[in-house]
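call fold(seq) -> tokens
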Amino acid sequence: MTASLVVPPAVLLIGGGLVLPLLQGWLRRVAILVLPLATLYLIWQVPDGIVLAVPFLDYTLALVKGDALSRLFATIFAVMALAGGLFALNQKRTVELSAAFCYAGGAIGVVFAGDLLTVFIFWEMMAIASTLVIWSAGPSARAAGLRYAVIHLLGGVLLMAGITGEIANTGSLAFGKMALDTVPRWLILAGFLVNAAAPPFSSWLPDAYVESSWSGMVFLSAFTTKTAVYVLLRGFPGAELLVYLGLFMVFYGIVYAILENDMRRILAYSIVNQVGFMVTGIGIGTEMALNGAAAHAFAHIIYKALLLMSAGSVLYMTGKRKCTDLGGLFRTMPLTTVCGIIGALSISAFPLTSGFISKSMISEAAGLAHLEVVWYLLAAASAGVFLHAGVKFPWFVFFQKDSGLRPPDPPWNMRAAMLFFAALCLGLGIAPGPLYAILPFAVHFEPYTAPHVVFQLQLLLFSGLAFFLMLGWLQRTLTITLDIDWLYRRLGVVLVRRLDRWVQTLRSGLAAAATHGARGGASWLHRHHGSDGILARTWPTGLMALWTTLILAAYLVLSYW
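ret:
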């Protein structure tokens, strides 16, 4: 492929997404399936190096730059667009699918971008498109979508400020590994971390994603956070700060997922948890850790989408999403139940699933880097993941009590999408070679050793036992879980209102003081310059001549002294 002939993969998906609302019937359905496949073909036609560059002012924008890491992420983004489109064939809101394809195209544009400005352009395109995906769910999603847009606007401002400062410092737009040695680079990192749902902005994800439609959250789970993982892999591998942020995200997601009653909010918090594993791996920074983070991002997109397809199918067929309203669905939704269990086992890193062959690389890398505390924390977190996503989600949704609901499995296209991703979860777990072959570094890791398999099975066994021993405590009720977003959604509003009242009081006080001062000034002027004032009096001519003589004499004395 030559630079003059290249068709950027992102352009095809974005252009197709914009055309989708104009298509109807079978033609629209064909386009939904063909566009991601054609994009996937183009992705694997992109060679290493800069393939498409255009001049811009005094710089050159590398619109398409290929390497192993770019192709890895672009591949799974295209596969996600295909499976998500298949799952959402019955979605009547045309805006959602159009925005979702533009969203996926923006993500592919970011991973092929060879410079910071191109990254920013596609980054903001993703923010706009994902907001539209949320808003397309209807009026109930408008407030959450607005909060989502505000947070991502903040992230975009931080990123643009950092890019501007980086250009001023270095004169270059190049996007590669950066040391955290300047303020602009810290701003770039902060902009990336907002999209990764890192603290203190982790709560935007469960706040906004769960308000999207039954199909919208499937798309949302894949692109924003994983694109952030990609840019962190590209720009800040080995940054020690990321280890601590990642560990915080891991346990933050576990705690809130355990407390939740909403099945989709459970899965939203588990996204933060799983991205925490990836961020930790990036912070460790060794080749094995970076391979693990990349592989885990690839696997996570698949099993998380499968879990959300399972939850979305339940929502589509029942209209309910609270665990307290669900249960016993395995009787009439057997395929959805099985696919949900496969996704739950995968996210728990159960042997023979995709999560096992990816997450274990990160833990192994921590051990080889002599980060014993990190290794123990990751092991404990793996048990916590099985507790909330591996057991809690399928148990409360498909088993536990009989809710009296008897919905069938969803339509054929939704079943086909779930079966496709369930097969990938098991296929990658059984034969990880194809995934390992496209990772950015050579893989020197064997997941299926006896000690590793036995340790993981023991970990999951005792975690599952703990769940059923604590089942009474884990039974959810109709409660609301307060997250850090309460600070700006509730407390922030109260503080702003009080600040507004204080400003109004201050303004009234200043206005009163100004009025009093003006009146006093007018009175002073009247006393001195009014018709009866001292400056309005008449003076005898002789007295005026005397003062003039005295002033002149003083001037002469001072001048010639």
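Strands lie at 49-56, 59-66.
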